[in-house]
Amino acid sequence: MSAHFTFPIRVYWEDTDAGGVVYYANYLKFMERARSEWLRSLGVEQDALRDELGVVFVVRRVEIDYLAPARFNDLLTVTVESIAATRTTLTVTQQIANETPRARARVRLACVNAASFKPARIPASILEKLLKAP
Fold this sequence. Notes:
Blueprint: E1 4-10, H1 24-41, H2 46-53, E2 55-66, E3 75-85, E4 89-97, E5 101-113, H3 124-132
């Protein structure tokens, strides 16, 4: 299973600390935006997922390596590559880079019931899109 997706992100002043370096937690925000756009590119709108199918994806686990600092005004590329899916989870790898890698992560998402936040099966129609992604 491999779905490779790229999403550009510009580093704004608000993303940095006083030294002009991206604050560590903002890398996770950049990755979240890329995952949302990746799902959108597959025809999966997260609000429709919640409203029509009653489920949402939540981050269950993140392992991240910070490799080099990104700085104010850098144009970064954030990638998403799906590597595994079960009935209730999806695991992706992500990278943030420009000329060189800045951060890499492995993210496990869980599908949960939108009301109870208890584990739920990934709807078959969504799982099919994830499995057929280019």
